[in-house]
Description:
The chain is an alpha+beta fold and 475 residues long. The protein has 2 domains: 3-103 and 123-194, Chloramphenicol acetyltransferase-like domain (Chloramphenicol Acetyltransferase); 226-406 and 433-470, Chloramphenicol Acetyltransferase. The chain is built from 10 helices and 15 strands. It has helices spanning 41-52, 127-131, 139-143, 174-188, 226-241, 254-270, 280-292, 346-360, 363-375, 461-470; strands spanning 11-14, 27-35, 63-67, 70-75, 87-92, 118-121, 150-156, 161-168, 245-252, 301-309, 330-338, 393-399, 426-433, 439-445, 451-458. The strands form 3 sheets. The protein has a 7-stranded mixed sheet with strand order 6-9-15-14-12-10-11. The chain has a 5-stranded mixed sheet with strand order 5-7-8-2-13. Helix 6 packs across helix 7. The N and C termini lie far apart (58 Å). Pfam families: Transferase. InterPro entries: CAT-like_dom_sf, Plant_Fungal_Acyltransferase. GO terms for molecular function: acyltransferase activity, transferring groups other than amino-acyl groups. This is LysR family regulatory protein.
Amino acid sequence: MSPAMDDESDLVIPLHFFDNSTMFTSITMHAIMVYDEVLDAEKLRSSLERLVSRDTWRKLGARVRKGKNGPDLHVPRRFTAARPAIAYKHVSYDMAKTDHPVASRMPSSKSAPAQRPAIVGNPEDWVELCCGADAPGAYADYAGSDRPITGLRVVSFKDATIVGFHWLHAMADGMALKAILDSWVLVLQGREAEVPNLHGFDEDPLRELGMHATEPYELAGSELSKLGTASYVLRNGYSIALGKKETRTVCIPASFLEDLRNIALQDLRDAGHKDPFLTDNDVITAWWSRLAFSHLRPDKPVTIMQAMSMRRALEADLLPPDKLYVSNCLTYTSVLKTKKDMDQPLGLLAGEIRRGINKHGSRAQIEAFQSMVRANAWPLGPMPIFFGRSNMHHIGFSNWKKVNVHLTDFSAAAVKKTNTPLYPSFVSQIQGGIAYPDGFIITGQDVQGNYWLEGYRPGGLWAHIEKLLQAEVPS
């Protein structure tokens, strides 16, 4: 069905303000989950369709169309076989997963490195298998068709199943994915009555966020000016838009991270902190940033930028804690350094990352940051503000630990009945459309305690990282 054949009864909802950015409309996200059991593809499809067909969840079955002020969501009043709730594809192979030339090379938590971190795969190898040759990328792939904004692809083997859920980033961020997966599992388990309603189905609860700042953003004055942004784009534009990107999957063993954490906490004690506190994210981000910047000269300016969910900070006034918010709800924190600064003790760098998260995640600082976003929203929409020097090397992080994709229990869809949870043995995050210029997604922690990271880097930089990892000891 072409866009011109839309049903006139469709409910038309403009994209919420913070969803309507060039970045989010240019990316399709794919959450890939590998299960070492045969799953019933029809149960997966029908349960997801039932979830999307629920009253306030119907926006996940919307079609994207060009509106007066940007993209609009056209939500069918009723889903039919001709206009289904989700895009769906089931591919079946009459062989074991280990006999498939691509699937057999996908990593697994069961064969993860035990002592030191390692590059264990390249997501580009399994993109076509997991996403399909005709997978959507950016806004144009949706607006030019009657494709729903979310979709499911199931790849079946005799002994395993790959489940891929995809969505246009303008629909949802990582914590929204958690809401979708958790609610999907409830439907699978016959517990639909426990699925919460969504907040902000047809109105934007964040429509005034950033209009009432009471203090300046802490890093205000360090953001790239329009001239600085132009300079940055001139220096890095080819790499961002056209340069070759390389992706890799990294596994960080639980024992290695524990050693890193102990070293980092001792660094802080040695610096005079009596009761230091660091999260796994603080330690991983500090350690990995040092590796990511290791090829640079000492005086090179660098910026570490992290995405953070605003949901908890907004619970008191904008987002009721008893309802789910499936949309983009992100703020950011940045640490500005030089390459030489990165050589400080690991714990001190991790401590600065923790301080930035605490400070920039406060309600007042979120309001201040989003006021800057609004002031710079033309013409690309509410894009993140970049802080640092125009000649900086910039890397970005997104941590999906709290999304808990690794704990998505699809036991209710198993062909062979089981009374124990069934979690994925591997999780991958694949990005269609534009690729991060130099960015990393911590896809989470598996049931063995190992962390997994996937990254997009300019061509040639992963080879340098691999050499460092082969000699890596906690420090």
